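Re: export button greyed out
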Amino acid sequence: MSYEDLENRINQRNVFLRYNVELEGPAIKPEEDEDVVDILPNDEPFKSIALTILHENRDDAINIVKKSLDEGVSPIDIINEGLMKGMDAVSVLYTKGIYFLPDLMLAGDAMMESVKECEAVLGHKSETKATVVSFVAEGDPHDIGKNLILMFLRAGGYEAIDLGRDVPAADIVEAVKEYNPIFITGTALMTTTMTAFPKVVEALQKAGLEVPAIGCGGGAVRKDFVESFPMSVYGVEAYHTPKLADAILKDKKDWKDLRKEYVDIVDEFVPEYS
Amino acid sequence: MSYEDLENRINQRNVFLRYNVELEGPAIKPEEDEDVVDILPNDEPFKSIALTILHENRDDAINIVKKSLDEGVSPIDIINEGLMKGMDAVSVLYTKGIYFLPDLMLAGDAMMESVKECEAVLGHKSETKATVVSFVAEGDPHDIGKNLILMFLRAGGYEAIDLGRDVPAADIVEAVKEYNPIFITGTALMTTTMTAFPKVVEALQKAGLEVPAIGCGGGAVRKDFVESFPMSVYGVEAYHTPKLADAILKDKKDWKDLRKEYVDIVDEFVPEYS
Amino acid sequence: MKRFTQMEYKDPDEMLFGHAKFPVKIRENMEIGDGYVIPEINVAPGEGTEESKEKMVSESRNIAHSASERAVNIGLPAFILEQEHISQQTNNPDWTAECTKVQIEMLEKYYDEYGIKTALRATPADIRDEEKDSGFWDSDLFNKVIESIEACASNGASIVSIETTGGKSVSDYGIARGDPKAILFGIGVLGSMDMEYMWNKIVLICKKYDCIPGGDTDCSQANTAMFLAGGLLDKDCSHTLAALARAMGAARSLVAVECGAMGPLKDCGYENPIVKAITGVPISAEGKNAVCAHSDLMGNLMAAVTDVWSNESVYHREEMGGTTPEVWLQATGYEAALMNTAIETDNGKILRDLYTLTDKYRDPQALVLAYDNAYRIGQAIVEYGDDPYLRARAAALEAGAIINEAVDAKKMYLTRFERDSLDSALKTLEKLPTESDKFIKDCIRRYSRKIADFDPKNYEL
Amino acid sequence: MKRFTQMEYKDPDEMLFGHAKFPVKIRENMEIGDGYVIPEINVAPGEGTEESKEKMVSESRNIAHSASERAVNIGLPAFILEQEHISQQTNNPDWTAECTKVQIEMLEKYYDEYGIKTALRATPADIRDEEKDSGFWDSDLFNKVIESIEACASNGASIVSIETTGGKSVSDYGIARGDPKAILFGIGVLGSMDMEYMWNKIVLICKKYDCIPGGDTDCSQANTAMFLAGGLLDKDCSHTLAALARAMGAARSLVAVECGAMGPLKDCGYENPIVKAITGVPISAEGKNAVCAHSDLMGNLMAAVTDVWSNESVYHREEMGGTTPEVWLQATGYEAALMNTAIETDNGKILRDLYTLTDKYRDPQALVLAYDNAYRIGQAIVEYGDDPYLRARAAALEAGAIINEAVDAKKMYLTRFERDSLDSALKTLEKLPTESDKFIKDCIRRYSRKIADFDPKNYEL
Ligand SMILES: [Zn+2]
Ligand SMILES: [Zn+2]
Ligand SMILES: [Zn+2]
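Workaround output, generated via the alternate export path:
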């Protein structure tokens, strides 16, 4: 029997299903999602600004922001009432599975560039909740996970310092001295690079530095390994990062608390922690 | 095409080889193996006694032993110069891959029953090098590994106390008090039963008892787990057991030494230790 | 009790993966053996989770969650989660109850959300103690086993199985010493007696709760021989003797079906193709996707006529590719998908034959389980179907004949050890009495003296 | 350098696992692609072994030992050990040398003792740094890579491979943002340029030592898209866009062969079926037996036309069934055995089609790699064979056309996200300039501003 004949005999549903297609709900506009409605501001120009972010429209975002700044709207308000609200909505749609990574990245790009416009008027960097430092483990060239974390942190109102890929422990010590972060995130894809994490902890201890927590995650990283040394907490999803940072900032949690209260902090079922 | 037609087309060598058949050397009589020649005694009745063990012939062994005892041969000599030499030779053939497990077990049965005949004349248990206690972890019903260990220990001149399967820690504490062993062996087939080992160590410590080493091995048992608690050494092959016992007895090694010098002690390439 | 004295399959060529004479229906929509192969995933609780009920329940939930999530993520139409309980669970039937409950809840959640067909096979541990005076059929431990089975059935398990251990002390003795008589007594007589005792009870419990009595496996006996036989370089058990033990195991595992077990028979019963040939019930099997748990020499062949395809067992932990429930369900799921594609395109029998011929002549153990030979052993069993001893003996003799024919045809090559142990085993088996009573009496005398753990009273003998 | 402007295979139906137009001979007796499929095992050094040369050498020896021992114990006629080096090895070419040496010694020991055919594929890590001013083609790190390759070749490695990373910063940017232009520039232009630069050097080194230059993979780019695309429920990269990236990756990975790589191409190059269709060199592939490392939606399909069958990668540690080199070599070895049985019985093409059809319509990424469609993409590539940019673009457009045809035929169903991102990508790709220079200039302007790590000087642009 020929390949074509064989192909035509198969009822694919008896072999594999495409649950993503099967279960797709009706298309709705992002601004009509009920959680987004709760987040979006009602007043102009903030509503329009937030919507440009929600629609991932960098050019429109910059244009409206510039126009609003020209009209004397406070750059701080534009950031907090407009751009950040839009980004909040994007994060919510991503965690709900309605938005995808490219939405998040493009909205993030639009937000970051718009913030820069505001800062130009402000004359200095805008205020953030606090600073977080992010790195990829020494020897590891994979940084998409880290870039995702950066985006979530920035969307969550944090100053996120990007130390890049393949970062030696010494550079992290320097960064802690310089930025005094409330949280560090490290990612690794390989077992032989995740061993960089305890070395970072050691280097910090040697330098007499302490950080409330170092979130360690990524492909090869296992919870039992991360919990075999101090200062660390095993991070499961990139979007958990700002929630962990919030817990440190607002509730004064440290790495011991984060390990114990992870599920409560990220507020969802996490098999690794239950 | 029919099943038979398909079957007749296959050149099995292009799919799988039977290396055991391919590489089989010529058959030789066990007593002609060069290492066995070195071990076997030259004098009678010891030579004949050793040969009955080598030939796994329980009935002949008992008969010759009884006859020799009747003729006034020292039971101690029969054990040490005859039976044990035969068993030594069996162990050598097993580790060389010439003898198989059934050979070892049947020869062991023949030896043990013959020793009993000697002990009957002697009026007490024959002397052994020292005592070793063997158990299967609590919750674990699989005991072939342990039985193998018993056989190797007895073949190696040790008094091997069999605590059986599914043994609670308390029973092991009692056995240590009673027998004062130089070595304990524990086996487990499952990950959820190997966790019994550290509990045994804890129970011994609580009771203020110490043993030079506890050898832990079996299906699910991993070296990293065994080395995560004290007193223990990870055992790789059942036939390593008497060598480890010898190192404890003669060279006063303890568990720390055994971990470090395992390869030297068992005198072969052991990937787990290199 | 109905003994099988006829084959349900009339021709070995009728046998094919995904198809059983008597499919088993779970809930509304999963039918096992009704034209497709279903993957089965079995994950052992991680170390430390045995310490408390809370940990074990959470572990059970996590395993079910991971498996379900991956199943949907890769588009499996159906899967079975097997949970083999550890002794702590069976020792505490309330653990069993709670673990079963959370697993069924998780599976149903995914069924409701995605429409994926799911089922839970719960397998309490046989924690009974065969030692002398232990009351094998009437002790606290025995009661715990029965209570745990009821806890599974009453808490929603779709299927209940168990790996009973009757006769293990005797068969272990025989396997370690190459004694075919002890193996036959341990498997064919004591094993079969214990199966009958246990399975009559299990089937009654299952009926009470509308739960499927799945089936048993000769794991504790024939698999001990197989594991000791090991690979080509291993020296612990002759592969020919292991093949005979397997054939005897079929005569024994058949008893569960005779007592009312409906299948799918349990994955690690490598004798299942024989039992399927006789009874027509669906089976589970394991092979090349069970490398996580053990190495066998028939990893493809075992897929040939199976209805459910399993990974046997794996520790619960993380790999690069995900947690082990995810990784190994994907492994069995992808193989099941290949079989289902073969069924869909009418190439099932070709794939069956490829699976079979890949391994058929690699090892005597594989040879006797090739579906044509499995069928022959089935025929030998039903010829003496009414007598557990005689049928187990007939199965072993037929297995020996199959091996010898293949050797004569220069298709199978044996080592000296395999050749010698086969010859000597067949000689011994042929000389045995043709009356069960005589054989049993003789064995009781011989083995109660030699085997410390064997107590005839345990079997009311 | 010879660019491929014609297909070596004249008909997709000619393609079959275990058969390549140009088999590769290792030592006296292993011929890859000469009528049988060979399993490949790849094990990552355990954590902590990177701490010293001594530990890494011992780890390398143990991996080779375990794999060889299991191979003999289960009767494999042949296997390939791949060692993907970690950065510490490549950073220290003397580590590379010693690790390669002990592994080859172990493999030869088993060859001498048992006659098992063995080969070592050594794969140094691409430790170069793409950042600005890093001297991608001329730095200490670059020199270490080249020295390590020479250390492999001169110490007896049978095959040398590498996973080059040229253009990764740009393609990563594009993948994360759904920007097909960035992906095309990163893979089709920068990736291809870097391949040419690296592989001309690698092939020269290999020739010097009589070592086979194996081939490359678009692991750092198209596999990033595939891993982010993930399963059906994942939301990070559209599966249609990942399919286009894969097609582009074929145009890029082809460059190694154009520079003189002879195969087997590296396992994780899911684009390999396309490259094989064009060039006729043997390939390695991974799929359902690489679940240890990652989850894909084409685990059976990838076996259809492969010559070597791999597990991708797994940590070195113990499982119930043995150490991971044992367990996973058995997994790939058993699947290779099934393929070899199909070849022996003249059923190779049926099994190939079963593998393919199991996955073909599960996912757009699988669809474009079905051997018939892979062939079509190959044809699109050779039509513009002389121009790396145009051929990568043509490959992506053809992949899009294949998906759209299947959708029109109601065989492939897309989600809205997949549908939208395909439409928008095809629109973008169609509008791109037909001149390479123009495209490159435009991309340099656009992406050197947006991507911190992208430095045109690294590529002498
Ligand atoms: Zn079992
Ligand atoms: Zn099982
Ligand atoms: Zn790769």
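Chain D has a mean pLDDT of 96. The button fix ships in the next patch.
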